[in-house]
Amino acid sequence: DIQMTQSPSTLSASEGDRVTITCRTSENIDTFVNWYQQKPGRAPHLLIYGASRLHSALPLPSRFSGSGSGTEFTLTIDSLQPEDFATYYCQQNYRTPYTFGQGTRLEIK
Amino acid sequence: QVQLQESGPGLVKPSETLSLTCNVSGGAFGTNKYYWAWIRQPPGKGLEWIGSIYYSGNTFYNPSLKSRVTMSQDTSKNQFSLKLTSVTAADTALYFCARDSGSYYMGFDYWGQGTLVSVSS
Among all residues of chain A, which has the CA nearest to that of B5? Predict the structure, then answer.
């Protein structure tokens, strides 16, 4: 299975901050990485697919952006808003079994 | 507007079979565009892909669960189902159904709200 390792596990930040979450994979998966946001008790929501492409459901302009290829990927959130404090997951769809990172909890400092 | 809704018992006894159904509306179900997936999340933990089913009926399962999982679909009812046999407490989780964009490589782009299944006697 392809292992997905996110860092950090927890991130403390303030409104207005810019934050970056990293996802490293156990093998080269080109740009087959997706990012999700999940709030407690709710389903995850797709934010980014193909490493850097915004899901069409996200309003523009978006504070969310993704980058990376190969084995290292990042999700960046600009100018944090209260609704951005949640848990974020990366996921690979390069090969089954599809696997997720362990999650990064973004909390208010 | 794509909508998915899970349904099924919230409590299953150990060693019995967990059965869930996902009803789909507005999501091109039954066409060759998408796969349809089950994903679960134990309380306080991360996400685990269980498997996906294609309109043709082809299925792809997580090897960690493959011996216990069966997915099926009923295109006339716009629904697909999950059966997980011989459950234990480790199968207690929030179970989500989702649209798997498959060869579009756009991830799981729409999700149901999830249904909590507890395994307990």
Answer: A43
Q: Do A34 and B112 touch (CB under 8 A)?
A: no
**Mind listing the pLDDT tens digit of every residue in chain B (121 residues)?**
899 999 999 999 999 999 999 999 986 887 888 999 999 999 999 999 999 999 889 999 999 999 999 999 998 999 999 999 999 999 999 999 999 988 888 899 999 999 999 999 9
C-beta atoms of B60 and A96 within 8 A: yes
Q: Do A98 and B49 touch (CB under 8 A)?
A: yes
- DSSP calls for A46-94: EEEETTTEEPTTS-SS-SEEEEEETTEEEEEE-S--GGG-SEEEEEE-S
